[in-house]
Specification:
The chain has 272 residues and is of the alpha/beta class. The chain has two domains: 60 residues, Helicase, Ruva Protein, domain 3; 196 residues, 3-Layer(aba) Sandwich (Rossmann fold). The chain is built from 13 helices and nine strands. The strands form two sheets. A seven-stranded mixed sheet has the order 5-4-3-6-7-9-8, with helices on both faces. A two-stranded antiparallel ribbon has the order 1-2. A hairpin with a 2-residue loop joins strand 1 and strand 2. The longest helix is centred in the N-terminal third of the chain and has 13 residues. The protein is globular, with a radius of gyration of 20 Å.
Length: 272
C-alpha cells in the first residue's frame, strides 16, 4: 500500500478515537518515515508505506497520546521532547506567556522561576522571548527534570536555564521578576479522556480539595518569591478563578484574570 492509501485507511480507523484523525495519521506517517508531515504529503505520497506505520496507528487507537508516540510536542512555536512521565504542554498554557509579555512590556525580566516545570516548556519559551534573562525550573519528578534539561540543550538554552528537584518554592531564597506556574488543578473526582487519564502523570494533573490544594500551598509563597515589581502568572482550571483570586487577596496580592483563545479564564496575573 502506498502512503496516500495508507493515510486514508488510517484516518478512517482513527476517527473512532480521535477528533483529529487525519492529522494524527499524517504526523504518525511522518514520524515513521523520518520526514516532516509536509515533506510526506508533497513529495512521498506515492512511496510504499513503511511497515512501522501500522504499529504506530495501533498505539494511537489504544488512546496513547500522539505526543508520546512521536516523542515531541510544539509549544510557543518551539519543539519540545516529551514522553511518559511528563505532562504534555497544551496550547492553553501559552496564555501565561501572552499575559506576561503584556504585563512586562518595556521592562524585560532578568530572572524567571517556573514552579512545576515539567518539560520546561514555559520557562524555555520565556527565555526565548527575553534573551537577557536567566531562569530556574523546579519539579519533584526526576523524569520531568530529565526532559527539561534535554529540551534546554536542544534549544541552546542550557547556559541560561537551571533545573532543580524540589517542592514548589520551598527551598527558594531568591526573588524573581517573573514566576510562572501551571500546577495540578483537576478535581480527582473528574472524568478525563483516556488519552489523558490513562497515560499522563497523575500527580501533574490532579489536586486534592477539588483541585485547589496546590493553589493553597503556592499562593502564600509568592510574596517571598517575587522581586519588587515582579509578577506571577498562574494557570487556572475551570471555575477556579474566584477562589484563587481570594487566596491572593488574603496574602495582600493584587490579581487579574486573563482568558485563553476559547474565552475561558486561564491565567491569573498576580503582583504585590
Amino acid at each position: 500500500m502506498n502512503v496516500r492509501d495508507a493515510l486514508r485507511a488510517a484516518s478512517e480507523r482513527l476517527a473512532q478515537t480521535s477528533t483529529s484523525a487525519r492529522l494524527d495519521a499524517e504526523l504518525l506517517m511522518g514520524y515513521a518515515m523520518g520526514e516532516s508531515r509536509d515533506a510526506v504529503l508533497l513529495r512521498r505520497s506515492d512511496d510504499d508505506a513503511p511497515p512501522e506505520f501500522e504499529a504506530l496507528v495501533q498505539r494511537r487507537l489504544n488512546h496513547e497520546p500522539l505526543a508520546y508516540i512521536v516523542q515531541s510536542r510544539e509549544f510557543w512555536s518551539l519543539d519540545f521532547s516529551v514522553g511518559p512521565g511528563v505532562l504534555i504542554p497544551r496550547p492553553d498554557s501559552e496564555t501565561l506567556l501572552e499575559t506576561a509579555l503584556r504585563a512586562l512590556a518595556g521592562r524585560p525580566p532578568s530572572t524567571i522561576l517556573d514552579l512545576g516545570t515539567g518539560s520546561g516548556a514555559l520557562l524555555l519559551s520565556a527565555l526565548t522571548e527575553w534573551p537577557a534573562a536567566k531562569g530556574v525550573g523546579i519539579d519533584q519528578s526526576d523524569t520531568a527534570l530529565a526532559y527539561a534539561r534535554k529540551n534546554a540543550e536542544r534549544l541552546g538554552l542550557a547556559g541560561r536555564a537551571q533545573f532543580l528537584k524540589g517542592h514548589w518554592g520551598d527551598d527558594e531564597t531568591d526573588r524573581y521578576d517573573l514566576v510562572l506556574c501551571n500546577p495540578p488543578y483537576v478535581d480527582p473526582a473528574a472524568s478525563l479522556m483516556p488519552d489523558v487519564a490513562d497515560f499522563e502523570p497523575q500527580d501533574a494533573l490532579f489536586a486534592d480539595e477539588a483541585g485547589m490544594a496546590d493553589y493553597r500551598y503556592i499562593v502564600p509563597q509568592l510574596p517571598e518569591l517575587l522581586s519588587v515589581g515582579g509578577i506571577a502568572c498562574l494557570e487556572l482550571g475551570a471555575g477556579q478563578a474566584a477562589a484563587v483570586t481570594e487566596l491572593c487577596t488574603q496574602q495582600g496580592l493584587v490579581s487579574a484574570v486573563s482568558r485563553d483563545l476559547s474565552g475561558h479564564d486561564r491565567c491569573l496575573l498576580i503582583h504585590s
